[in-house]
Amino acid sequence: MRSRPAAIAGFASLASFASFAAMAPAATYVVRGGDEAELLIPSGVRVESYENSGYRLVVEGSSARIAVSAEPLQSELPFRVSALPPSSGATAKLARAVVADAPTRFEAVSRILAWVAGNVRYDLDREAPQDADSVLARRSAYCTGVARLSVALLDALAIPAREVAGYVVDDLPQGGRSGFHRWIEIFYDDRGWVFADPLVSHHLVPASYLRLASSALESDLPGPALMLARRRGLREVDLKSPAPTGRLIVRANGEERYAAVVHLRSDAPAPAVVTLDGAGVQIRRELEGGEVTIFGVKPAEYELRIWAEGRIAATRRLEIERPEWMELDVATRFAPVAATGGTR
Q: Is residue 124 domain-shared with residue 210, that is, in the same domain?
């Protein structure tokens, strides 16, 4: 006799997600491109083919193929907080304050997700209540509470949103864990449903996110999932803002840019360092494999220097007039220093 399906009591963000975020500088990066994965579906769960704006899941026997697009959403849906009916309560007051002058639904959603990412701390405390009011008062939660607060804040703005039960398959090279997770889905009248994971990725989720058709388990001991193949094609194209808690990736709505990006290639011998001096700051980055990408560069005049073997290998003056992607090839006239028998 078949046992009744068990409900998943609580989906928890994985500790490995936090370690992944710590691998990159704490900031919010705009990404473009795509991400693809083929996963072995864990036993004991129900998975069905599904598609929304930016995510496509196709079930083929015991495996699932997922394709994610990070190309701009291009929603033109307007938003006016003044058009909302009167409402009271801490959640509604906070939501309306956060999006006060947002002109579009995309901007309103972006501000809510950014507020959650910057103000709610991940805490895998199974004893702590995960309802929206408790999470807001405590400012901490695991993924279930994060999703519920995010949905409640959006609901207070009359923006349709819902929780998503899922399973994340971790294929990080340093080793990680896979397991059940919960994120959200937001509706745009002109674009349909769009995924977001408030503490990790906004307006998209990576291809390692497997949507479940139900949060009920067919077995008390579901089997593990497995990454069968992965093709990573998401690339960072802009720096939106610093992030106090870790690395966030976001999908853009259009062609807007927040800052300039300098992508530099050089023949300087390793190890080499690039510095940009200007606008009252110095930006310092290491060349890796003869390349470096510098995000968050403000329009200004800069002195670019490449340092190798303790001295300047090349210099160039840059004038950045607007936020744009800049490609630079800098050759170094690097000549070995003759030994003199002394030290400086």
A: yes
